[in-house]
Amino acid sequence: MIEIAGLDHVVLRTSHMEEMLHFYCTVLGCPVERELSPGFGLVQLRAGSALIDLVAVDSELGRVGGGPPTAGGNNMDHFCLQIEPLAEESITRYLASCGIEAGPFERRYGAQGFGNSIYLRDPEGNVVELRNRVQG
Hints:
By secondary structure, this protein is of the alpha/beta class. 19% of the residues lie in helices and 36% in strands. The protein has 3 helices and 8 strands. The strands form 2 sheets. A 4-stranded mixed sheet has the order 1-4-3-2. It has a 4-stranded mixed sheet with strand order 5-8-7-6, with no helix packed on it. The chain is globular and about 40 Å long.
């Protein structure tokens, strides 16, 4: 029987690598874990126990997936990152101070059951859900 322990990685194709690196590394605090040769086009970021892989669409790896993401044709609906518990107002203030627009906190169901989470968009238009990790 397969038992899922958590998010392993998410792969995002991008035509705006520097903006994506700023968003995920600087705003959300995901450090670069590995970067393959620039021509190959893969940068892997550590997001807690998971990875976020950024693939440049104009690279060797990126061309395999076709054209770049567009407003009407993103490669993914959204993904959710569990974050260490932090007051909702603190999260909202921090995102605003970084120039990031976010929706309201709403009660949603996720891997740890129901909880409040917030949606925001990265520079490529991908929807990112942030959810406080359940203590336990």
